[in-house]
Each structure stands twice: as C-alpha cells, then as structure tokens.
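hiii, so i know i said id send this last week but things got crazy w the move. better late than never?? heres the sequnce for the chain we talked about at the cafe, plus the structure i predicted for it. fair warning i was half asleep when i ran it
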Amino acid sequence: MQLFTASIAITTASVATLTASVATTTASAATLTAIAATTTVIVATLTASVATTIAISGTLTASAATLTAIAATLTAIAGTLTAIAGTLTAIAGTLTAIAGTLTAIAGTLTAIAGTLTAIAGTLTANAGTLTATLPQPDAATSSTHGVASHNQLFCPQAS
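okay and structure toks below
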C-alpha cells in the first residue's frame, strides 16, 4: 500500500515537473517566433535599403568621375546589404524551424504528462481496489508480528 502511495506521489511530482517544462518550452517557442518575426521585418527594411542604394548608384553613375567612384562604393554597400539580408533571411528560417521544434517538444511533453497522469490515476484506482479487496487484520486475533494476519490470508484453516 505504501509502495502505491509512493508511486502516486512520484508520478504526480513527475507530471508537475513535465507541466512546468511544457510551459517553459512553449514560452521559448513563443520568444523565438517573435525574434523570427522581428528578423523578417529587418530583412524587409534591408531589402528596401538595397533597392534605394541601387537607385542612388544609378543616378550617381550619370555624374562626373568622382561620382562614378562613389557609385561603385554604393554598389559594393548594396551587395553587402544584400548578403546581410540573405543571412538574416536564413537566420529567420532557422529560428522559425527551432520554434517549430520547440512547439513539437512541448506537444510531446504534454503527451507524456497526460500519460503520467493516466498512470497516476491507474495506480490510485489499483490502490483503492487493493485496499477494498485485502482483508483487514482483526485486532482480536492479530499479533505484533502479524502472524495471525498472515494465517488469515494464506492459511485460513490455521487461524
């Protein structure tokens, strides 16, 4: 009986721990999703900056030799910004994938918590069944060593 009670307590504590893990994992997934959204906005801004920089570069190319050098510099900056935008797009994709993974982990932990809750329920029901099924010792016939109870359970004709 104490074994079932201890098993129920351990299982209940495990469910509580897993529930807390699910909450933490869900919060992490939400944070990463927000970071991915912010990164996507930054990528859009950088993409617009690239288009603006390229337009400025075209205008300056029509100017004098000094302006041609400036246009080359701005074109190089536009290339760098395009590379940065590509990198940030990849990072946003990675963060979105991580958020999806964490969401899946949260789902798995939720399922495990449900399973452990069901196990705790089964153990509780089994403990109740055992308590109701096992004969209780009779104070008049039981000894301090439980011999009478043993006899009642396993050797009924001896008691």
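btw The two ends are 24 Å apart (CA to CA). thought thatd interest u
miss u guys!!
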